Amino acid sequence: MKVLLPLLAAGIALSATAANEVYQTSNEGIVYTFADLAKIEGSGVTKTGENIYTVEKDIEVPANDGLTLENNTTLRLGADVLIKMWGGKHNFVPADTATITSNGDGVMPKGIQFIDMDKTVEVKHIRFEGAGVKFGGPAASIVENCTFFEHNDRIGHYAINYAGHSMGNEVRHCYFLRTAMSAIGAGANIAAGVVIEDNIMEDCSTANRNYPVINETPAADNGPIIIRRNKILGGKRLMPGAISVSNMLSMIGDHKVIIEDNYIDNSRYGLNLMGHYMDFRVTGNTILNCHYESNSVNGGSGVTVYSQSADNASKVYMSGNRIEGCLWGVTLVGTAVANLGNVSVDASSADYNPGGNSFKNNGNCGKAPEGAETAFDPSIPYDLYNNTAATVYAQGNVWGGADQSDAEVEKRIFHKVDDAKLGEVIYKPVGTTSGISVAGEDNFEVSVYGDGAITIEGAAVGTPVSVYDVAGSLLYSGVTDETIQLGRKGLVVVVVGNKAVRVAL
Fold first, then answer.
1. Nearest Cα to 471, choosing from 364, 354, 330?
2. What is the pTM assigned to this prediction?
3. Are 166 and 137 in contact (CB under 8 A)?
4. How far apart are CA 432 and CA 412, in angstroms?
5. CA 345/CA 355 separation, integer angstroms
6. What's the farthest any 2 CA atoms get from each other in the chain?
7. Mean pLDDT by 10 residues, the chain (505 residues)
8. Is 290 part of a structural domain of the chain?
9. Where residue 462 sits, what CATH number does that domain have?
10. Which helix (H) or strand (E) holds 439?
11. Are 131 and 77 in contact (CB under 8 A)?
């Protein structure tokens, strides 16, 4: 019996001691610009060009004052320079753009930090080069349309760092490229509710340490953790995974976590869900090629759910996910409670789950042979590994065998049949595609616009059209001369006549 031991790094939030000289503003109710600071002797701010300022001292702005980053401003920060702001009188929302970068090759600044926020702080339209941003709560923060390029981890292990309890945080439409550690994260003792939506994270955690791209702690009364419609493109590294939500300190509460419609590729693992008191809903995610781990005992799952509490075990609901090319498809460890599909109950039941998860080419040889990149070996298949004593319902799914016969499915599920100490996986009835086969060639075009609107071009007027979600549920039925308004995001199957295509909304 293999015992899977998922690894996670989530540090306790600690304050750092600045080594630089510090300039503090007057605390007399003045809202400063960097042009204003450049006129003050001893501020450490110097104007070096049109809208360009070097900052060689740490800047502290007490709660009575404010600081504004004006449009088209470039800040060039010196080594370990931190701009620290208290309260909520600050404006870091330039109309079009601004840049916070370093003051030279090899110079690594910290960035900006907001502390004791008494109202929502917004950070928008800023390009961070090396530098990061840290939020200390208790008010919310909103980060939108920002770029984080090669974050250097001087301000912490996360390019966006939640260092104080808070609720209502948002990160949307941001681009993260080659961050040294995580793109977004919170310390293990920090309850910061956050919505992370519609971001792109490419080749992050380049230091190749055990820091996932998104590394969150559940927040209970401070709001849910929602991770939705992000694209995480890994760098094929052996240590960092894509998304981890972990209650390492067993904080008591009803922790809601929603992870849906994300696209994950080429990471060590897809989702690592770890700890107690958590309720996970994992739907519509595409998780591909998470096999960059040389020892499969240490990771490589599309999804891992790990809990050790007898009374407050974490539970996961999974539907409509696509998991391909991983060392393990789904691994359940300890006392984790999982519902991967339950059609044995009435559709009105809270336990009802149509399944609709699909698995393909998942497997490993245990430990990679010398010279191999990973342990990946789909000829030794593992779509679902139930390393718990609990019965797991996994009905309505499509497994990665040559067909959906009992013999083929059993090859891909490790459970009571393989080890009497483990719980049984109830996988029948298996899933189908409702008679839908994706066309190799089609004679029509599907156009997507707005909030889930679809038009069909190239097919005869009046041709029947149906749209299904990935679980096989019918979302729409009509004909080609109509605009299809679904009002939703995610992966769907569009059937035109007798041909079909998968479409991402």
1. 354
2. 0.83
3. yes
4. 17
5. 13
6. 79
7. 47 53 96 97 96 97 97 97 96 97 95 96 97 96 97 94 95 96 93 96 93 93 94 93 91 92 95 94 96 88 92 93 96 96 91 94 85 83 97 96 93 97 96 49 65 76 80 76 72 77 68
8. no
9. 2.60.40
10. none
11. yes
